[in-house]
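Incident review: delayed structure delivery

Summary: a single-chain prediction request sat in the queue longer than the usual turnaround. Root cause was a stuck worker, restarted by the on-call engineer. No data loss occurred. The affected request and its eventual output are reproduced below so the record is complete for anyone auditing the incident later.

Affected input:
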Amino acid sequence: MSERYGAADGLVRVYPASTATDAAASGPTPALVWAHGGGFVAGDLDMPEADWVARSLAERGLTVVSVDYRLAGDGCRYPAPSDDVLAAWRWTLAHADELGVDPARTAVGGASAGANLVAGAVLRLLEVEERPTQEDASRNQKAPRWRFRDGAGAPPQPADTLPAGVFLAYPTLLAVQPAPDAALRALLDANPAADRFDPASVRAMYEGYLGGPVDDAPLPVVPGRAAASDLAGFPPVLMINGEADELRVSGELFAATLAEAGVALELHVEPGTEHGHLNRPGEPAASDSIERVVRWIGGLETPTASAPRPADGRQTTQTTLRITEGITP
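Output delivered after worker restart:
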């Protein structure tokens, strides 16, 4: 079992890659900076979606940096959790040699609300204009936007390195999302326990994260509103959605925009799943998803960090793959 330890003043827990794997034995390993889910207000590093996922990937040769980001509530709201994800990303790169990881094969990923945080953090790395409201500007003047867990400032770097890839597990990316199509509606009607993300609940979740109305929310809070031009330069994406999951609507809309922008994309629907299957290790789909992640990270190419955006805002050498079946050779 992989060793684990706290680091970065308690912001992360690191799961070193198993030395029994060929990748770990031959030199620097691939890595994943990972954010659990929990609706922005719940979750911790010991839940299966954090700990089991990290251990499973570490056993397969990936070093995992699991982020203990601040939870919304009690005065904590955006951008604090997003800041923590960015701080963990930068800490990982700064300690790559110590961790034995290859920065060129280091990705970021998250589940559910954690996937939102990760997608939003990458948009911030891409310097997407956040279009803050007057209230946002007032909030941000009261406290530093960049803060390590111990309070020390961590100002943004002038030339941030982008992740090699972005893994989004059943992401929530819109505060107000369209109704599911007839096929998804039928799945939800057939399984009422899975039908738990009604519009009012989702909107309330985002209002709690932002600390106010979401109508003028910064784009990194609702990445699903991104246009193709906003996603120019976005790293390759692996997205795995639940089958009977209303949040799949926001993920698929974001995936369509990624494809329009020419971003390399693998889009999977894990058969027979509800939302949050990585938090249920006993389900075969959880292990199937782990295998997808290992394959995907193994196939990532070196990213073009801080590369200028193409003049037309699009990338031209990418492909899109949609798979709705189980693991295949």
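Verification: Residues 80-94 form the longest helix (15 residues).
Action items: add queue-age alerting; document worker restart procedure.
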